[in-house]
UniProtKB/TrEMBL annotation:
The species this protein was found in: Candidatus Nitrosocosmicus franklandianus
Protein name: Polyketide biosynthesis 3-hydroxy-3-methylglutaryl-ACP synthase PksG
EC numbers on record: 2.3.3.-
GO molecular function: hydroxymethylglutaryl-CoA synthase activity
Family: Belongs to the thiolase-like superfamily. HMG-CoA synthase family.
Length: 465
């Protein structure tokens, strides 16, 4: 019995900052943000929102849209890297919020945990819940995996223009209507790294930006190697001499810290997959230069980044490759639609690849393409670090769901705020009772802590109808 994503729902906070305002305030060329990063609007959580309330809002929408009741659900997992408590799991807050609407203890029978591994943990949560159902443990109940994050970097840092906020809730079931995951192909890679991390008590991460970019690419590529071996063994892909695995994957959805990273990841993976194929000669002819090789091809990431001559030549080659018709053709057909949401929302950490999936489905559907049977390859990455590559096939009933997707409507009317107000939110100078917007049909944070020490850190939420 196939298992996979039956439906998905999103929640994006309605406040945003515009890239032009941001560029002006920070003295950056707006073209860098629009094209170099690929961001136009960055979603911001209001003072009365946090990753738990966003997760509960996405989950509630998923339940309402599918007429799901608590007894239909066996597990609720929340994957996040914006944890609110070192011990209490975020899904317990979410259950508390849902039970305000569905009734006390209505979700008592369900299980679940908060999962953490930077941006990749949602993919682990999906995999584990898929296997829970495959193993026959679900007692005919569905699992819900929610990915929810606030991407927040230091003011004035290079990471600041890769912020965003939002949540995606995914309904995992047998015979899914959207995407059934391929079996025996999921591949992971793991390593102890410090590319991006957030020590206890710190609200913003410490980031080695360029290192994290290269590490992301290398780790996803390594996971793809194992995926390829498994996919060939499982027989879901059969390769002829002049073919690469990417020729057999109809859509490619990757982790999107920012839009441009998706484009760069595709270039990196295609170069890796194609450089040994006959087509590579024609591609390098079109580019007009050979692919550069580092002085020490087996060196460390540090040694490659320090190889200035190679890095310069490689950047030149990559840019030229990205405007070849070979790259452009794959990009337009297999990736472009998945990047649209990222440009108007920003980084969602755990949720970014799943917002990308949602974007892919909606905008490919609008091209009048028959998506039934198309295979999507996923390249998930989490700093620290781990990558997961897996795939799934779009199911026959996708239309009944995808035809209803509408990103603008689902985000709702948005409010642009000034850079001054954004900075107030960033510095947490506005309290939960000083939100910019009035809440409507959503969960909000209404209290943190209490008058007595035994209620320190208590977070209270309510449903604002
Ligand atoms: N017009 C157009 N483009 C311009 C430009 C201009 N005037 N000026 C610069 N650019 C382009 C650059 O050429 C570059 O393009 P390419 O990537 O194609 O080379 C792009 O804008 C970015 O500019 P820089 O290379 O100068 O990079 P930066 O100093 O702005 O930093 C960043 C970019 C490293 C991503 C930084 O924003 C950062 O540290 N972000 C947080 C970390 C991150 O997102 N890492 C990604 C991998 S780790 C991960 O994925 C986990 C996660 O979610 C965090």
């Amino acid at each position: 019995m196939p298992v996979g994503i039956d439906d998905m729902a999103i929640y994006v906070p309605k406040l945003y900052i515009d890239y032009k305002d941001f560029a002006e305030a920070r003295g950056i060329d707006p073209q860098k943000l629009e094209y170099g990063i690929g961001i136009k609007k960055m979603a911001l959580a209001d003072a009365n929102q946090d990753p738990a309330s966003m997760a509960a809002n996405a989950c509630m929408r998923l339940m309402k849209n599918n007429d799901l009741h608590p007894q239909d659900i066996g597990r609720i997992y929340v994957a996040t890297e914006s944890g609110l408590d070192e011990s209490k799991a975020m899904n317990s807050f979410v259950i508390g919020m849902l039970e305000q609407v569905y009734g006390e203890s209505t979700l008592e029978h369900a299980g679940g945990i908060e999962c953490k591994f930077a941006c990749v943990s949602g993919s682990y949560a999906l995999y584990d819940n898929t296997n829970w159902i495959r193993a026959g443990e679900s007692n005919d109940k569905a699992a819900i995996v929610i990915v929810s994050d606030i991407a927040k970097y230091d003011l004035g840092s290079a990471g600041e223009y890769t912020q965003g906020a939002g949540a995606v809730a995914l309904l995992i079931k047998e015979n899914p209507r959207l995407v059934a995951f391929d079996e025996r192909v999921t591949s992971t890679i793991i390593k102890n790294e410090y590319d991006f991390y957030r020590p206890f008590g710190k609200e913003t991460p410490l980031v080695n930006g360029l290192y994290s970019n290269l590490l992301y690419l290398i780790q996803v590529r390594k996971a793809l190697e194992t995926y390829k071996e498994k996919a060939l063994k499982a027989g879901i892909i059969v390769l002829r001499d002049d073919e690469s695995v990417t020729d057999h994957i109809d859509y490619i959805s990757v982790h999107l810290p920012y839009r441009r990273m998706g484009e760069k990841a595709l270039a990196y993976l295609l170069r890796h997959e194609w450089r040994h194929l006959p087509r590579w000669k024609k591609i390098t002819e079109e580019i007009g230069m050979d692919e550069p090789v580092p002085k020490d091809p087996r060196g460390t990431i540090e040694s490659i980044l320090a190889d200035v001559e190679f890095m310069k030549a490689d950047e030149k080659f990559r840019r030229a490759f990205m405007i070849t018709k070979y790259y452009q053709d794959v990009f337009d057909k297999k990736m472009a639609s998945s990047l649209q949401a990222s440009a108007v929302i920003g980084n969602l950490y755990t949720a970014s690849m799943y917002m990308g999936l949602r974007s892919l489905l909606e905008f490919e559907y609008l091209k009048n393409i028959d998506l039934y049977g198309k295979r999507i390859g996923f390249g998930s990455y989490g700093s620290g670090c781990s990558a997961m590559v897996f795939s799934g096939v779009i199911q026959e009933k996708y239309k009944e769901l995808v035809s209803r997707m509408n990103l603008d409507r689902d985000i709702g009317p948005r409010t642009k705020i000034s850079i001054e107000d954004y900075e107030k939110l960033h510095k947490n100078t506005r309290k939960y009772n000083e939100a910019f917007l009035d809440a409507e049909d959503e969960f909000i944070l209404v209290n943190i802590g209490g008058k007595t020490a035994d209620r320190a850190g208590f977070r209270e939420y309510c449903y604002a109808g």
